[in-house]
Amino acid sequence: MYQLYGHQNSGAAAIEAALELCEIPYRFIDVESSPEATHALEKLNPLKQIPTLQLPDGSVLTESAAILIHLGLTFPQSNLLPNNTAARDQAIRGLVYIVSNCYSAIGIIDYPERWLAEADESSRQNLMAGARAHLHRSWEVFADQFSGDLYLGDETPGALDVLAAVVSRWAGSREHLRSTRPGFFAWLTRIDRHPTLAPVFARHWPD
Q1: What is the pTM of this model?
Q2: Quick one: which of 45, 128, 140, 157 has the most CB atoms within 10 Å?
């Protein structure tokens, strides 16, 4: 059985949603639930980053894009990745784009002290503001470049849809997109309501 290490309101939601789309059994381990769970994560991933996915054979996958690509290739019936080679290439490109440009900026916003030799408050705020501006601009570019590769409402959402719907929830990105890219914002809300994904998102972001 797959074992997914994460916690509420984290990137693990994207992997949990993907596992649901694959229709395979898995166990979600909340690393904030106990010291034992945190220790188990650290043994698998010394950086203690989530999501971390332990495969049924005991091997470990980290990095959201890598995990989603693994699931898409291992369970092609899930449609996490397109069957068409050119479309699949663009979906993988989009996954790496989100991780490189959006996810990384959120890490700076959440933990600016990690990137500063002298973490005084002025430096923290300046770094966070710059990272947030970069993040919001990156989502605008994503919306402009990848809209043709996204779920339109009739077919099954894919890995790119799932990752965008999760990572766009942080650091004011949805609010920014509502005004700057309203069509893309509307697409994100459609993903939120998908019947397979909505229960996962509700567990991570309860009303």
Answers
A1: 0.94
A2: 157
Q: In terms of domains, do 115 and 182 share one? A: yes
Q: How far apart are CA 150 and CA 133, in angstroms?
A: 24
CB within 8 A of 13, min separation 6: which ones? 6, 166, 200, 201, 204, 205
Residue 74 and residue 89 in one domain: no
Residue 4: other Cβ atoms inside 10 A: 21
Beta bridge partners of residue 54, listed in sequence order? 3, 60
CATH code at position 28: 3.40.30.10
C-alpha to C-alpha distance for 35 and 51, rounded to whole angstroms: 17
The closest alpha carbon to 110, from 122, 95, 127, 88, belongs to 127
User: Rounded mean pLDDT of 11-22?
Assistant: 97
> By CB neighbour count within 10 A (0-12 exposed, 13-18 middle, 19+ buried), where does 15 fall?
buried
Distance, in Å, from the CA atom of 105 to the CA atom of 108, rounded to the nearest integer, reads: 5
Q: Residue 76: is its pLDDT beyond 70? A: yes
